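User: Could you walk me through two proteins back to back? I'd like the raw sequence and the structure tokens for each, with a short line separating them so I can tell where one ends and the next begins.

Assistant: Of course. Protein one, sequence then structure:
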Amino acid sequence: MKNMMGDFDVKVIGDMPEHCDIQFNTTGTMGGDAGHGGNSSIRISQEGGASQINIDKNDVELFTNDDNGIDITFTVSGDWEMYGLVAALIRLGDKLRERYGDPADDEDDNG
């Protein structure tokens, strides 16, 4: 994996009325575990449409949203935790692209 020494922030915005925005930000590597101050977060924002939040532990529904929007942030602390989160997001993106293709290709065809 590439060295990610600096901070980084990117937001991907959906192009549908019922869209989902995803944002990733990190302080970058800080030289060790959580005690060194490194933090990385993924934030998922859902605007419009129905959504709900569940926690696997007891499969309990915590919140149901009906068209009002919702934000969820998941944060990890430490260098290796950042690498693990980035690797998981990359694998997820690869699997989604494999399954559904790249929506940007459709935009190019219709543009």
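----
Protein two, same layout:
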Amino acid sequence: MIEKEKRIQAERAIEAKKATAASATAKEAAAAAITAEVETQNSLSQLEDDQLEQNLHNELNLELRALEKKKAHLANQLATRKRTAEQAQKLAEAKRIVVEMQTEI
């Protein structure tokens, strides 16, 4: 009878150890799953951050191109206005010379 009780206690101890081991294994598995999920979320977050940065870069690049085109257009306008002003001065000088020549006649 004592041996039977010892055997039952030993079996219970073994079962408790198995349950503890299973619980520890389950906890480790849960921790590993959580770690994997966090790593996946971090990876996705990094991808999203990279995509947002790339979108911002593309947007800024487009704005830069637009500003460069506007600058070129304004430079062309300025050159045209300078030529117009120079031609107007030449015309005014020519008219002044003609008037002087007419007054001499």
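Residues 32 and 102 are 104 Å apart (CA to CA).

Let me know if you want the two compared in more detail.
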